[in-house]
Amino acid sequence: MGRPTPTAAAAATTPTFEPPAPRSIEDTGLHILFLADLALKILYNVGSLTGLQVADRMKLPFNSCVDQVLEYLKREQLVEVKGSGGFGEQAYQYNIANKGREKAQEAMERSQYAGPAPVPLPVYIKAMQKQALKSFRVTQQAMRDSLKHMVLNQQVMSQIGPAVNSGRSIFLYGPPGDGKTTIAEAVGRMILTTDLLVPYAIEVDGAIIKVFDESNHQKARKEASPDRSRDPRWIGIQRPVIIVGGELTLETLDLVWDEVHKYYEAPYQMKANGGMFLIDDFGRQQVRPRDLLNRWIVPLEKRVDYLTLHTGRKIEIPFDVLIVFSTNLAPRDLVDEAFLRRIRHKIEIGDPNFEEYTEIFKRVAAAKKMEYDERALGYLIQEYYIKSRRRLRAVHPRDLIEQMVDIANYLNVPKVVTKELIDQACTAYFVDL
Question: What's this model's pTM, rounded to 2 decimal places?
Answer without folding.
Answer: 0.84
